Amino acid sequence: MARFNRGYGRIFIPIWLAFVGLFTIAAVADSFFEFGWGYNWSDVKIGLIMFGCGIAFWFLWQGGLRLSEWFNETMFGPDPTKKDD
Question: According to a count of CB atoms within 10 Å of the terminal CB, is the N or C end of the chain lower?
Fold first, then answer.
């Protein structure tokens, strides 16, 4: 499960940030230059909020992984498969 959690955060969150960032840039361009794509300034605000929440979620995810690793090492000892840095 820990391997899935680590991979999920490493893959899904950057993809989320890329898509939200791309569509927010499109919304800014459409709101500013009026291309006729149907975006307005409220879409830009929503996109910026979603991007900010994605960054916050990434930090929370990383903190949760570190907390999980700390708890596992505290309760069960060091991981024998983990290489020392």
Answer: C
